[in-house]
Write a structure and sequence with these properties.
Blueprint: E1 3-6, E2 14-17, H1 27-33, H2 35-58, H3 62-66, H4 77-104, H5 115-147, H6 153-165, H7 175-194, H8 199-202, H9 204-211, H10 214-228, H11 237-258, H12 270-273, H13 275-301
The structure holds protoporphyrin IX containing FE (HEM).
Protoporphyrin IX containing FE is lined by residues 63, 83, 86-87, 89-90, 93, 133, 136-137, 140, 164, 179, 182-183, 185-186, 221, 224-225, 228-232, 323.
Subcellular location: Membrane
Membrane topology: Multi-pass membrane protein
Transmembrane segments: 34-56, 76-103, 124-142, 177-198, 210-229, 241-258, 278-300
Length: 326
C-alpha cells in the first residue's frame, strides 16, 4: 500500500498509510458538504450584485465610467451578475488559498479550529470556488448571447461560448490577454483541485507535488482582476483593498516556505538536499519575501496601476467596442 508522509505540527513528520477505500474522502460526499458553503457564496454574490446595481443606478459605478453605455442596470444585469460572481469567486479563492497555506505551514496548532475541520473547509471552499469561477464566465457568455440579438441562435450561442470559454477567441482590447489569463485559472483549477479525489491512484506524493501548483491559479485570478476589472480600473479604494488583500496571502506563503510542516521540505544543508533542489527552495523563499516587500511598496506608494477617473460624460447609446473597457 502507498505510504504517505503527513505533517506533525510540533514534532517530526509521521509516516502514515494512505486511507483505506472505506474511509477515503469521496467527491460526492464533499459536494454534499459544500452545500452550506455554496449557499453562503450565493448570498455574498447576491449582496455584491445589489451593490453593483445600486452603484450603476446612482451614477457612481466605475464600470459605467469606463463603459458609459452600461448605465442601465436592468439591461446589463447579466454583466453585473458576472462581475458579482467574479468577486465572490475571488473572495472564495482567497479563503481557500489561505486555508491551504495554513494547513501546509506550521501554524495550525495555534488555531482554534482542528486540523480536520480546516482540511474539510479547505476542500469545500475550493469546490465552491470552481463553481463560482464557472458561473462568472457563464454569465459573461450569457450577456454576449443576449447582446447579439440581431444574429441567429446558433451564431449567438457559439459566439458567446467561444468568447468566454475558448482561449484566444476573444479578440478585442485588454480582453485578448485578460480572458485567456482568467481561463488559464479556471482550466488549471479544475484538475489541480479534483486530483485530490483520485490521489490513491496517482500516489499522494505526485498529488502533493501537482497540488502545490494551485498557487498559480490564484496568481492568475488576481492578475486577471487587476487587468480587467472595471470596478478596480481606477486608482481608488477598491483597487487598494484588492492589493492589500494579497499581503496576508504573501506573508502566509513566505511563512509556509520558511517553516514548512514537512521536514522533507525544509531548506537544510545543500549537501543533504542536493544543490539544485536547495537552490530552487532558496529561490522560492527569496521570491516570496520580494513579493511581500513589493506589495507593501505598492500599497504605501499608491503606485498600483490604477488610472485616473475621467470627468462624467453624457452616455453614448451605441457601443462600438462592447464588453471591452479599452
Ligand atoms: C474563466 C474565464 C473568465 C472569463 C471569460 C472572465 C471574464 C471577465 C470579464 C469580461 C471581466 C470584466 C468585467 C468588468 O467589466 O469589470 C472580468 C472581471 C473580473 N473577473 Fe473574470 N473572467 C474569467 C475568469 C476569472 C477568474 C478565474 C476569476 C477569479 C476567481 C475572475 C474574477 C474576476 C473579477 C473579480 C473581476 C472584476 C469584476 C469587476 O470589476 O467588478 N475571473 N472577468
Amino acid at each position: 500500500m502507498q505510504q504517505e508522509m503527513t505533517p506533525d505540527n510540533d514534532g517530526p513528520p509521521v509516516r502514515e498509510a494512505a486511507a483505506p477505500a472505506a474511509t477515503r474522502v469521496r467527491l460526492r460526499a464533499d459536494l454534499r458538504a459544500a452545500l452550506p458553503d455554496a449557499a453562503a457564496a450565493v448570498g455574498v454574490t447576491a449582496a455584491v450584485f445589489a451593490f453593483l446595481w445600486s452603484r450603476v443606478a446612482s451614477g457612481d459605478s466605475a464600470t459605467v465610467a469606463v463603459m458609459p453605455f452600461m448605465d442601465d442596470p436592468a439591461t446589463y444585469w447579466m454583466y453585473l451578475l458576472s462581475q458579482a460572481f467574479g468577486w465572490s469567486g475571488l473572495l472564495w479563492a482567497w479563503g481557500t488559498v489561505m486555508l491551504g497555506l495554513l494547513l501546509s505551514g506550521r501554524l495550525t496548532g495555534r488555531l482554534a479550529a482542528s486540523r480536520a475541520a480546516l482540511e474539510r473547509w479547505h476542500r469545500t471552499t475550493s469546490l465552491t470556488t470552481m463553481a463560482l469561477m464557472f458561473a462568472h464566465a457563464l454569465m459573461f457568455a450569457a450577456e454576449l448571447v443576449r447582446y447579439e440579438a440581431g444574429l441567429g441562435w446558433a451564431e449567438r450561442l457559439w459566439g458567446g461560448f467561444a468568447d468566454a470559454f475558448v482561449p484566444g477567441w476573444y479578440d478585442s482590447g485588454t480582453g485578448e490577454l485578460a480572458i485567456p489569463i482568467g481561463l488559464g485559472a479556471l482550466y488549471l483549477a479544475v484538475p489541480l483541485g479534483l486530483l485530490f479525489y483520485v490521489r490513491h491512484r496517482i500516489g499522494p506524493a505526485t498529488w502533493r507535488r501537482l497540488h502545490r501548483c494551485v498557487i498559480v491559479v490564484y496568481v492568475l485570478s488576481v492578475w486577471h482582476t487587476l487587468l480587467y476589472g472595471t470596478n478596480v480600473w481606477y486608482g481608488e479604494w477598491p483597487r487598494t483593498v484588492l492589493w492589500l488583500l494579497q499581503l496576508p496571502v504573501a506573508v502566509l506563503l513566505l511563512a509556509r516556505l520558511w517553516r514548512p510542516a514537512r521536514r522533507s521540505e525544509r531548506l537544510g544543508a545543500p549537501r543533504r538536499t542536493g544543490a539544485l533542489a536547495w537552490a530552487l527552495r532558496g529561490a522560492g523563499r527569496v521570491v516570496a519575501a520580494a513579493v511581500v516587500v513589493g506589495l507593501v511598496a505598492v500599497v504605501v506608494s499608491g503606485h498600483d496601476g490604477g488610472r485616473e477617473r475621467p470627468k462624467p460624460q453624457p452616455p453614448s447609446s451605441a457601443p462600438d467596442d462592447h464588453h471591452d473597457p479599452e
